[in-house]
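Most newcomers find our protein records easier to grasp once they have seen one. To make this concrete, we reproduce a full record directly below:

…
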Amino acid sequence: MSAPKFHIVPERPGDQPLIDDLLDQVFGLSRRAKTSYRLREGETPVDGLSLVALDDDGKLVGAVSFWRLFIGEAGTPALLLGPLAVSPALQGKGVGRALMRRGLDLARDMGHRLVVLVGDEPYYARVGFARLPEGKLILPGPVDPARFLYLELQPGALDAAEGLVLPPARFAELHRPSRYHMDETAMSRTASAKRVENSGSSLTARTR
């Protein structure tokens, strides 16, 4: 039997309903309860890194996307790969690997350094993913450590990453200065300004 023919293109306007149908078919409706979905909820994928695979008839048979993450107090940037889905009729035919390789090459060209995902190590190891050292990165929800994987797009990228993995909005929320801190800072600045003003007034008085 000849290998299936397909080609990979950027996700097009109007593809999202087809992608959602494919994801429901492959992963089931319970997919939205998974921890990896919490990292995508309310966020948008990285521009230029959402790809689809089309067969010779133009039918969508695969899809992948990448999402921004920040890790630890330092906010080390990373990407989340997924969801990756391939039509059941074409699974095991190389469509998923081709989608990932194209996406990872594009991500590397864009300057991204580190990619993480939750998935089966034997499958994703085919494109270079490996199991994360246990405890180095923490997801905001339960996950099997054996399925928490990473790939360095630049050597040494994992060295700078440690701690809680969060999506952009949640990271910004947790690291936004509190109102109390902002009020304290404003009061401190006001007090400092008054001291400078009073110091200037005293100097003027002494030099008259």
Helices lie at 16-27, 35-38, 95-109, 121-124, 168-174, 179-207. The mean pLDDT is 87. Residues 179-207 form the longest helix (29 residues).
